[in-house]
Amino acid sequence: MNQRFLEIFIGLVPPVNEWPLRTFHISMAVKGNQFITYGTNLARTHPINLRNGKRNSSGIDFSGTKMSCSELVCLMRVKRKSNIPFEKITLINFRVDRNLEMCNSKPCGSCSSLLKFLRLRKCLYSTPNGFELYK
Q1: E strands along 43-84, which residues?
Q2: What value does the mean pLDDT of the chain take?
Q3: C-alpha–C-alpha distance, residues 70 and 65, integer Å
Q4: What is the distance between the alpha carbons of residues 116 and 14, in angstroms, rounded to a whole number?
Q5: pLDDT band for position 17 (cuts 50, 70, 90)
């Protein structure tokens, strides 16, 4: 993991008392060593989210919850702000808890489908032990 991207992530994290949830999740789009844009979880729903059901790691359906995943927000910004093909984009997911310790940020089922459809170059996600490559 490029140290520069970790520094960008730390700079984007707001103060803990401003977080709406118990963790902070952000996705960054990069091409090589170039930072392109980022996205965070939002408390509003995009129509794409309404078409794709969402389940957490325990299998509980939370499709009715108003939110847009950071992966979707980030990739929509890539499309809007650049003409870089998705095949050349690397997506890096970070999630930290209120103690600023890394947590699992593996993409949900809906985002997994989106990532496969767009054929990104690769996707990395945080775990308590570092980063893993999403397959």
Answers
A1: none
A2: 82
A3: 15
A4: 30
A5: confident
